[in-house]
Amino acid sequence: MTGTANRTPAALIVVLALPWPGCPLESSGEESAARLALQVRTATELRSEARCGRVVPRQAGVDLFWTPAGTPAQQQRVEYASRADAFEVGDYSSSPELPPDQSTWSLERLDAERDFFWRVATRYATDWVPSEAAQFRSPLCAGDIRFILPDDPALAASALQAAGKCDDDNPRVAVAVLSWKVAEVQGEQRVSMAILPTGFETGQFDVSPPLEPDQSSFEWKPLGGLATHYWRVLTRDPDGWIASDTMTVQGPPCIADIIR
């Protein structure tokens, strides 16, 4: 019978429209959205290691680490700023887009001694989902220090003395025991250490954490073995840093040096 051979019986249509026993009905839009929301995760375990940069003149930098959100994330980016309310007002910078499994990123040439705030945003389809924010403080590095010449020598630390020893807790580590007379006009102090005699002129030196204005001694560790090191005491002035004369210190032969 032409025109009727391919017709589907009405009873069969009804059967196909019903679900098979034990199978759920098709989910509603709300149920699908709920399942998707369960899959949307954020990066976690944010941590940072602030440091001085690897390029001379050395400036502040930081290495950032986190645990990625994982599948089904598509991309990530690091968002950062130096304002605590930056993410609320939308005034922040971002890294390039990163692969979804990347777990570290670095920043270089940061302003010294500033608080920074950062987070990791994860992209799902067209939406970016941010993690909780974390914070770090950038260090003071050689490239950030401006040396000034004092009008009066008494404005600089003086009477520098140094001795090397092996660390009391870890005899494998060489330590420099440093002492000095504090400048007459006290201010925040730092100890700076170089391994080259020209290190202070070329910006190739390290800087200690902040020292109290009246502090007159410090232990620098680890000291690089038997090599001669050059050190200064820096005193902060409103216009820059006043450096003491440069002195030398040499580490003793500790266990690690003897083994080598």
List keywords for this structure.
five-stranded antiparallel β-sheet, disordered N terminus, six-stranded mixed β-sheet, mainly beta
Give a verbal description of the structure.
The structure is a single chain. With about 260 residues, this protein is mainly beta. Helices cover about 10% and strands about 40% of the residues. The chain contains 5 helices and 17 strands. Strands 9, 12, 13, 15, 16 and 17 form a 6-stranded mixed beta sheet that branches. Strands 3, 4, 6, 7 and 8 form a 5-stranded antiparallel beta sheet that branches. A hairpin with a 7-residue loop joins strand 1 (about 45-50) and strand 2.
Quick summary:
This protein is mainly beta.
Rounded to the nearest angstrom, the radius of gyration is 31 Å
Strand content: 35-45%
Task: Tell me roughly what share of residues is in helical segments.
Answer: 10-25%
* Distance, first to last CA: 99 Å
Give helix and strand order, one letter per element, not per position.
HHEEEHEEEEEEEEEHEEEEEH
Query: Count of helices?
Result: 5
SSE arrangement:
Blueprint: H1 10-17, H2 29-39, E1 44-52, E2 60-67, E3 75-81, H3 86-89, E4 93-94, E5 104-110, E6 115-124, E7 127-130, E8 134-137, E9 147-148, E10 158-166, E11 174-181, E12 189-194, H4 199-202, E13 205-207, E14 217-223, E15 228-237, E16 240-243, E17 247-250, H5 255-259
Parallel strand pairs: 9-16
Antiparallel strand pairs: 1-2, 2-5, 3-4, 3-6, 6-7, 6-8, 10-11, 11-14, 12-13, 12-15, 15-16, 15-17
